[in-house]
Design a protein that fits this description.
Number of domains: 3
Largest sheet: 4 strands, mixed
CATH class of the largest domain: Alpha Beta
Radius of gyration: 35 Å
Mean pLDDT: 83
Helix content: 40-55%
CATH topology of the largest domain: Diaminopimelate Epimerase, Chain A, domain 1
Order of helices and strands: HEHEHEEHHEHEHEEHHHHH
CATH architecture of the largest domain: Roll
Strand order of the largest sheet: 1-2-3-4
């Protein structure tokens, strides 16, 4: 038996085994309390490190929610070849066990890989459903990305922490109470409707709900700030309300927000209106409902500016809301002008693509005809050459009998 060969194999196995099973890792966590920056890539100077860490620590002391900054040299340096920034940031978040004081999983990790030029902001699971993605992306696009593009690492991550400050400082988003058993369909949290108006609206909506089993809810608020939702759009807030209330697929929620009038010389109240509807209203009815808010906003403005003959009062708009909703719930169909209006963009897009396709086809026709002429000329020239060759062969030659020089009826592949 060849023991030397066996020994070599065993040694190779021991040498290669650790290499093959090396798992992805994260840089060591800080041993001292109050350290929220892990600069494994060494991209920060001592003063920059201290400044950034002081900012993170101040935010933690103010909010009880940590924001950890992690830089690495590369994914390869952490045995994470082939990983993406989101995957590694999520992995690091879990490995460090970042958690807020309230145990709500509301912590943030700011991650950067220097050599891979990758950046990611990972929010804890406690922020799920709060629709922060668009805001986080805007922070990167407008404040962080330009610095990182110039290799200004400290400025980039510092801008990220400052930009994410509102998320840490934002309290838990609040939503007005709603009880299905009360059959109160108008939640006037903004107190912008009179009691009589609320009562009349509830009667109208309740009748529709009894006939169709599809609820219509009208929610009013004064501002997103008072709901700790100032970083959300009003659309996103009402979508969240829809989910929190557990509205069924045929239900519709309308949101009305009275905006603060910052013009001391104007008596006009500005309103923002939006709608969130169930999956039943995908397609034409979804576009129909989303087409109404801007019209109602304009009508409210003209009603205040030029009188009710030119526009509508707030109560008249809420009555319109019930009518639009009932039309969609009952699938009453559209007038021609309504259908054309809500499908204008799809029609224009389809027409544009159709004309573009026709234009490309027409543009290619001259080349097609030119190619066909050249093909015919090639066939004729080949036939002439073959006839010349045949004329030099004997009349009873097999080649002459089997090859007549005619190509016109042959396929290209046969030529």
């Amino acid at each position: 038996m060849n023991f030397r060969g066996m020994t070599l194999v065993v040694l190779l196995l021991f040498v290669l085994a650790p290499m093959s099973v090396q798992a992805a890792s994260v840089p060591p966590a800080p041993e001292d309390d109050g350290v929220w920056v892990i600069d494994a890539a060494n991209v920060l100077s001592s003063s920059e490190f201290d400044s950034l860490n002081a900012l993170c620590n101040d935010l933690y002391l103010e909010t009880g929610r940590p924001i950890l900054v992690l830089t690495i040299e590369s994914f390869a340096s952490q045995y994470a070849d082939g990983w993406g920034e989101e995957e590694y940031a999520n992995f690091a978040f879990d490995e460090y066990g970042i958690i807020d004081d309230a145990g709500q999983d509301k912590a943030i990790l700011v991650f950067m890989s220097e050599d891979d030029r990758r950046f990611w902001t990972e929010l804890g699971g406690g922020y799920a459903g709060e629709n922060w993605d668009a805001y986080v992306q805007s922070v990167f696009d407008n404040e962080v990305g330009p610095f990182l593009g110039e290799d200004r690492w400290f400025d980039g991550v510092n801008a990220a922490v400052e930009g994410l400050r509102p998320i840490l400082e934002e309290g838990e988003i609040t939503i007005p109470d709603f009880d299905w058993s009360d059959e109160i369909w108008v939640v006037d949290d903004g107190n912008i409707l009179s009691n009589d108006e609320e009562t009349e609206l509830n009667l109208i909506i309740n009748e529709i709900e009894l006939e169709t089993s599809c609820p219509i809810i009208i929610l009013t608020i004064n501002s997103l700030g008072e709901k700790n939702a100032s970083m959300l759009s009003f659309d996103s807030y009402i979508d969240k309300v829809f989910d929190e209330y557990g509205v069924q697929d045929c239900g519709i929620i309308w949101g009305i927000m009275k905006e603060i009038n910052l013009d001391p010389w104007s008596d006009i109240d500005w309103y923002q209106i939006t709608v969130s509807s169930g999956e039943q209203y995908n397609g034409d009815w979804g576009r129909y409902l989303r087409d109404q808010p801007w019209k109602m906003q304009d009508s409210l403005y003209y009603g205040q500016e030029y009188g009710m003959n030119e526009g509508s009062s707030l109560f008249e708009v809420t009555i319109d809301i019930t009518q639009y909703s009932e039309k969609a719930i009952n699938d009453d169909g559209f007038e021609i002008k309504e259908w054309l209006k809500i499908n204008l963009m799809p029609i224009l897009l389809s027409s544009t693509l159709l004309f573009f396709g026709i234009g490309l086809f027409v543009y290619s026709l001259p080349n097609k005809f030119k190619f066909r002429r050249r093909k015919e000329e090639a066939f004729e020239n080949t036939a002439i050459i073959n006839r010349a060759i045949m004329s030099n062969l004997a009349g009873d030659s097999n080649a002459r009998r089997e090859w007549n020089g005619v190509f016109r009826n042959m396929k290209d592949s046969e030529i």
